[in-house]
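The instructor's notes for this session suggest beginning with a concrete chain rather than abstract definitions. Hand out the sequence below and ask the class to guess, before any prediction is shown, which regions might be ordered.
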Amino acid sequence: MKLAGKRIVVTRAAHQAEELAQPLRESGATVILLPMIEIVPPLDSTPLREAAAQYAHYDWIIFTSANAVSAFAGELPFPRGEITSRIAAIGSATRDAAERNGFTVSLVPRKYVAEALSDAFAQEDLNGKRVLIPSAAVTRDLVPNALRKLGALVEVVEAYRNVLPVDSATRAAAAFREPLPGWVTFASSSAVNNLLELIGNDPLNRVKIATIGPVTSDAVRKHGLDIAAEARVQTAEGLVRAIIEAE
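After discussion, reveal the predicted structure:
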């Protein structure tokens, strides 16, 4: 098996970790589960609930993650099939989550970066169109600003929060004691920032880092760390493939 003998840390939230952990195990790796984020509801769910109730006011709804899909779908007071807004999903995993929740996806940009989103909407007239982005509590302004430059009226509502699990410090210390694991995987910027807050740069300078895509890689590089593998397709399978190719 291609990853036999490799110890790999998975930092995804507990409810999503097995999606990555299982294919790593099937490739022979020993997986260390170390959730660096926990998905919890917004401090105030009113804006999300109101946006869901007023779905017909939006020309486009853009889902940036599977968590955003779940949070928005949970607030809808009617069957998904009644949604008349056009749906865009960032990445294939988010598209799959949207379709499992009954949404019909019209557009899937290559990546969650401004350039890719602008290219994806190049054939669409966004001037004066109302666009809703249910998102994490802390999200970048880059993509909403790119859409505004195309004339869209963008509303970003908090759909969920990424928080640090209560036992993270103890588990992080155990995961990164000597001998260090061979790899650590990141599927979000929040996981990067949270782990670095707990253990600092030194251990991560001595292991290989794999990320699910360019946004997460940017978060790693901002801390002065190198990327050993980046998924070309932003899915768990794409991340496993990137690690195998880098070995």
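Then share the key points. The longest strand covers residues 153-163. Residues 189-199 form the longest helix (11 residues).
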